[in-house]
Model the fold of this input.
Amino acid sequence: MPNEYTALPDPAGLGTVRGMPRRPVSPGSEPVAGLTAPPVTDGSFPATARTRVRRADRASYDRALVHAILDEAPLCHVAFVIDGTPFVVPMLHGRVEDTLYLHGLPASRIMRHLRAGAEVCVEATLVDGWVMARSSFHHSVNYRSAVVLGPGRLVRSRREKLDGLRAIVEHLAPGRWADARPPSEPELRQTQVVAIPIREASAKVRTGPPADDPGDLALPVWAGVIPVHATFGAPAADASGERAPLPAYLAALIAGPSADPPR
Done:
């Protein structure tokens, strides 16, 4: 598989993570680079036999939507098959343009599978609300999910490896990479990074109220949507080392966005 890894232009000196400009990086830091992909002229992924969603009313192949779900989801689940046995592993991830980065120990089952170029299925889900219907049959969940199918590629370039690790750390908390100690050479040797191209993907979304049968609308049962929000609690500082004040970027992360998710 040819390595199409190229540096993205960064005239303003901004680190580009998840394809969006972030705050300026410190002097001497390298900007995050990305993996170039074939152009998507209409902004959508092609619906393939593997990604086509049966519920057409909930399906989307919009590139921006798939990216947004991957960016907002705190972690993803990676599914793969080895010798006929299926596995699903939760993993931290980071996106740079049309590339998804994962990392792990070289000896782990999933990393051995990924670095061999085998196919995997990556899935991320955001839950936006419990849908309470008047009948048990029509209870549901409002959600946004994305599925990416593709082969793994072992990242061999030191720069891309650092960029992939940076994307994963920045996915947890934008601004953290510049604040924390960078990986040491022994740590880099103990960690492998794999890249998965985001070229075969789809999203599935449910919004709105319950879809009760007309005959159930007169039942004296409460029905509607209970919004679900992911929030952070009060930070608990580690007492085993040097104390430092909570940085502004973490305070902003804890405060969270002001807008409600779709319902």
In short: The radius of gyration is 21 Å. The CA atoms of residues 175 and 248 lie 9 Å apart.
